[in-house]
Amino acid sequence: MIECEYQTTATLHRIADLYGYQEQSLQCQEELAECIVAINKFRRTNIYKDQEKIERRKNLISEIADVMIMLQQMIHLLDCQEELEAEVGRKIQRQVERMKEAGIWEE
Ligand SMILES: [Mg+2]
């Protein structure tokens, strides 16, 4: 899911193994909640307030990074990389089929 350097991946796996699933699954939930808040705040930004938009965008990117870091650890702790990739591929294909049926997707 996340394209990152080998060293970064190895470091994330080490962090995940040191804390374990109980701790990291709680942290993951917390980061997901923070990301939801950041998504809402960015969408509600007053379009005339440029500085606010810049700050909220920066905050959203930061929260997305937190979530990606935690999900990468969850994938490691659940030992599900291949299973996940297959599921992602299947879901994307299913969405494309739905869009074709709705006339939104053209080859
Ligand atoms: Mg966060």
Polypeptide structure, described:
The chain has helices at residues 6-43, 50-78, 81-101. It has 107 residues and is mainly alpha-helical. It has one domain (6-80). The chain starts with 5 loop residues before the first helix and ends in a 6-residue tail after the last helix. The structure holds magnesium ion.
Average pLDDT across residues?
Answer: 94
Number of DSSP helical runs: 3
Count of discrete structural domains: 1
Q: How would you describe the shape?
A: flat
Helix/strand layout:
Elements: H1 6-43, H2 50-78, H3 81-101
Bound molecules: magnesium ion.
Attribute tags:
mainly alpha, 3 helices, flat, 0% strand, binds magnesium ion, 107 residues, single chain
